[in-house]
Amino acid sequence: MKIDYKITEYFKENNLFDNESSLGLIVKNNFNSLLINGTSKDLVEFADILVSLALSKNKNDHIHIDDLSLLNKTSDYSEIIIEKKEG
After folding, report:
1. Using CA atoms, how far apart are residues 36 and 32, in angstroms rounded to an integer?
2. Which of 27, 53, 54, 59: disulfide with 75, CB 3.0–4.6 Å?
3. Pairing verdict, β 26-29 and 34-37
4. 3-state secondary structure the chain
């Protein structure tokens, strides 16, 4: 699946990030809660991934986020799979 980083590019072109650093998302298990932590750039990139998946024309499409893409190596999880369900 192709990710279209339109939101990220818009933020970058308009200097809307609080800084340009990207540390990757940190996902932690926090007493029955899932904590997703990241810089403004990380969170906007995550939003782009979600929007791209939501707009995908493929039925039941999915995306893997891992330490080779947006996930920080210090996360409690090594991979996140997000699926778009048909309907």
Report:
1. 13
2. 27
3. antiparallel
4. CCCCCHHHHHHHHCCCCCCCCCCCEEEEECCCCEEEECCHHHHHHHHHHHHHHHHCCCCCCEEEEECCCCECCCCCCCEEEEECCCC
Residue 1 inside a domain? The answer is no
> Residue 70 above 90 pLDDT?
yes
If one counts the domains in the chain, the total is 1
Whether pLDDT at 48 is above 90? yes
Residue 17 lies in a domain: yes
Q: What pTM does this model have?
A: 0.85
Look up the domain containing 38 and give its range: 6-83
